[in-house]
Amino acid sequence: MSKHLLLLLPGLLLALGSAAQTPAQTIKPRLTNVTVYLNGSALEHQGQVTLAAGLNRLVVGNLSPRIDAQTLEVRLGEAAELLSVSDDDDEAPVPKLLNQTAADSLTRAEAELSIIEGELQGLQQEKAFLLANQTLPSGTQANWSAEVQKGSSLMRTRLPAIQRETERLKARQEVLNAQSKELRPRATETNLGSWQVLLVRAPRAVTVPLAMRYFVRTRILWLPRLDIRANATGREVEFVTHGLLRNGTGLLWQQVRLVLMRHAQGDDISRPELAPWELDFDGGDHIGEGRIDEFVVKGTAKGRPIEVSQGTRYEVPELVTLATGARRELTLPAVKLVGRPEYLAVPRVSEHVFLQSKVSGWEGLQLPDDAKIFHQGMYVGNTELNDRAFNDSLEVALGHDEQLVVGRAKLEDFSGNVPLSDKRRVRLTYELNVRNRHPETVRLRLLDQVPVSEEKEISVKVLETSGAQLDARSGKLTWLLTLPSGANQRLRFSFQVDYPKDKKVEIINHQVRISSPKFR
């Protein structure tokens, strides 16, 4: 222990001893700010406190009963010095209930619940007793007819009565449980709420500001949901965030400034360390490859995020009043972004053409896992979102479009042996047809694919692509088409596959006949 600490410790102990003789001053700073995270709330109380010269013992009430004391931060004006913070029961006055009516109602509900629980147990035991005594005792065979008649009558009347009474009591039990859950926050609220005792030293009599901040860990208080609304063309896209807000802090919110955060308050913020990647024959404790993502973030990053009012933090413009345990539906201001409509067709998989809007400037938004999509004011479905996997543009699906028609036909289906070789060859040619029935020009992304080889003995050769972009690794073919109104376009691609004669490779679907493509 250092010399300085040894010198300070007696002074602090003396101050604490003197504080025990100092009269307590009870104050209740007003709750002014609530910041709601996905896993709890940060609360801030503000007020003024008048201090006498010397030591002052402040009993600060009106704090949340669910306070995490480890997160408590106390700030006083420069003219005062904070010596200690305590929640010792001996330091505070006895709190008084603020809502005696709610407390009495809760007491009556809990008493009735106790009675109902006892009655249910009694009915259960009576039913078990009747079912266990369905056989006649020995020695009653002479009067068996009368005994059986009495027993059957008792079973016939009493068992249904037990069932009806059990159902009635359980229904009442559910009602009382719901009432108790609603009453408990109001019935347990006191004039002090939770409290903390502050030992403060002031060089002179002075009035200083007091601020107390702390975190309350509760279940989800703010559950955001997202609606994406696009106009008919898909060029105007609105992101509307709304959700259910619940006051689970145990304190009344009376005209508080409310901030909504779109993430959880993390516990572990330590810097990760990269350990050596060691290889050995025994396995060992190394982490191997570590974390592997299911996606790769792509894009040119040429776009510049626009300023949006939401982001990770949104401050509700008006002051909020919300009772303890109460709920409120809250809608944030809509964020309007510009979309570039694009149609997508994958005729190998679906006969439908999908309209999507490629939205730029979305980077300032914190997106949930999914969203409801509305197009032209009508709900069209849900879509999954992953803001870590998007490119520069966020692609928002808006549903099917029947004004664009696609067709896929097989023009060539050749299968035979390769002369002077131990190989067999398959050659396929397909034709894609697209027709635009819109009154205006549209932009269409058309996708198909050629196979890719997973074996050295199987070779794939692309013969024709009609100008498509070919991703050699996946075999995906992409055409970007601009189709005037009433126009149709045909695109052809072909490939051949060579493989050993003694091996079987499933390429051709023999149930699909070669047919003439549409719109010839």
From TrEMBL:
Residues 106-133 form a coiled coil. Residues 219-501 form the DUF4139 domain. Residues 34-130 form the DUF4140 domain. InterPro entries: CHP02231, DUF4139, DUF4140. Pfam families: DUF4139, DUF4140. The keyword Coiled coil applies. Keywords: Coiled coil, Signal. Residues 1-20 form the signal peptide. Transmembrane segments: none annotated. The keyword ATP-binding does not apply. PANTHER family: DUF4139 DOMAIN-CONTAINING PROTEIN (PTHR31005). This is DUF4139 domain-containing protein. It comes from Hymenobacter jeongseonensis.
